Every structure is written in structure tokens, then in C-alpha cells.
Amino acid sequence: MLDAGVPLNMLNGRGDSLLIVASYAQHADTVRDLLRRGAATSVVNAMGQTAVACAVFRNNEAILRLLLEADADPALGAHPAAQIADQFGLPRMREVIESFGSAGSTH
Questions:
Q1: Please, is 27 exposed, middle or buried when counting C-beta atoms within 10 Å of its C-beta (0-12, 13-18, 19+)?
Q2: Mean per-residue pLDDT for 51-73?
Q3: pLDDT average, residue stretch 10-18
Q4: For a surface tag, which of 27, 52, 98, 101 has the fewest beta carbons within 10 Å of its beta carbon?
Q5: Based on the number of CB atoms within 10 Å of its own CB, is 99 exposed (0-12), middle (13-18) or buried (19 or more)?
Q6: How far apart are CA 87 and CA 73, in angstroms?
Q7: Which DSSP state fits 102?
Q8: What CATH homologous superfamily does 2-99 map to?
Q9: Given this model, what pLDDT does residue 30 score?
């Protein structure tokens, strides 16, 4: 799609970027490719969700790591990623976030 001219940071009607959609759908190779091409990691959709929040919610450590390695901010969005991890009982996701130096916590 991108090679055919689809804008890298286009948004759908809900404000989802390609990166948010790929993260939620758990397509690690697509996430990796979008990041390699320079996709914005700071997009917050109309529901306050980010690609990081989607990776945490889906309990996908590989995608979470890709995003954090690309300097995605886990504190962005309506609910920080660490808060999502806590809310859904995903301690490993919180550990990964904290290992990158920011819990994005509201505590």
C-alpha cells in the first residue's frame, strides 16, 4: 500500500493510524515496516488510544518492544500504557514498559 502512494500517517474516521491498526491487529512485521519508514508513534485516536496502548491491551510483547525501541511514549493517550497493563492484569507488559525507563503511570 505504501509503495503505491498511501500516506504513511493517514488516519481513518476514528483517528486510527496505520500503526495503531497494525498494532491492534498484532501484525508485527507491518509494525516493524511502518516504524522503519518513519510512522508517527504519537498518534492518539478519537478514543484516546495509541499504538502502544493497543499492543499492551493485546498483550503483545514483541510489538510493544518494537514501539518502545522506536521511542514511542507509553504515557500518551487517555490511559497510560502501564495503567492499561494494571487494569487488565498484564504484569509482564508493565515490566517491559518499565524496562524502557518510563511507566507512564498516574500513581
A1: middle
A2: 97
A3: 96
A4: 101
A5: exposed
A6: 19
A7: -
A8: Ankyrin repeat-containing domain (1.25.40.20)
A9: 96
